[in-house]
Write a structure and sequence with these properties.
Length: about 170
Amino acid sequence: MNASHPQNGQPHGGRASGSQTDKPSGAFASLAHDALELGELQLRLAKLDAVENARKLRSTAILAVVGTLTLMAALPVALFSLGEWLAVQYDWTRASALFAAAGCGLIASGLLFGFAYYKLRQGFATWQRSTEELQQNIQWLKQTLKPSDQSASSIAKSKNNPEPNYPLC
């Protein structure tokens, strides 16, 4: 049998996978532990933000539902009354007065939905804290995992003697 292939279910070298000898080195284990701790803290922060976001969105949703139901119940009566008043007060035709009243209703509806949209955006702004913290944690992890074997002289040397850039075609 070829020595490079696994024999008897064990990888090359005769060591069983997952044994005590497969533990990572001390520095790597410490880094992995720190990364896992960081991930756990990130999840806790996301959970706190989710609870706060749900609380804010709940009041916004209640406001939107109550506003919509009130508007649906009262708006037709109010708009017809406004249209009749405009027809009588300004001697407009009934059609033009009702059209003007409908325009007023659309403006009021747009303002209410604009306010609801504003409140909704405020609710989602809560996630910004988690996003910023995650970005900082990722940057820290990248800096920590950056290979340190490249010395400043080798970096400078590679800048002074760049590899040739051949066209792909």
